[in-house]
Design a protein that fits this description.
single chain, about 110 residues, mainly alpha, 3 helices, about 75% helix, flat
Length: about 110
């Protein structure tokens, strides 16, 4: 394998992880702020739009980055990084009284 290609895959994975942390961390911050704002629907709408636009722009950039070939491999690496970030964020931001299955423990 080409060392440049391996480097591109690693960067794509890291970029996907960063995009995932931005997306799911932003979602967590939005949910924490909803009870405190006057118009929660507006906060949720603006947050959802901005998080989605940032994520799509990041995936688009990874898709067109550098070479015309091997785009799908970089996109898969980016998606895997995004999924790892989702898993890490759901573990990190889970309430303390929640079990692994998601049910609350009395």
């Amino acid at each position: 394998m080409n060392p440049l290609f391996i480097f591109q895959l690693i960067v794509s994975f890291v970029a996907g992880t960063i995009l995932g942390v931005i997306f799911f961390g932003g979602l967590w911050l939005t949910i924490k702020q909803l009870p405190k704002v006057r118009h929660p629907w507006l906060l949720f709408l603006m947050s959802a739009l901005s998080r989605t636009l940032i994520t799509l722009a990041g995936f688009w950039f990874i898709g067109i980055w550098l070479s015309e070939t091997d785009r799908w491999q970089r996109m898969v690496a980016c998606l895997l990084g995004f999924m790892v970030a989702r898993y890490a964020c759901t573990r990190q931001f889970r309430p303390e009284n929640a079990s692994i299955s998601g049910e609350t423990v009395s």
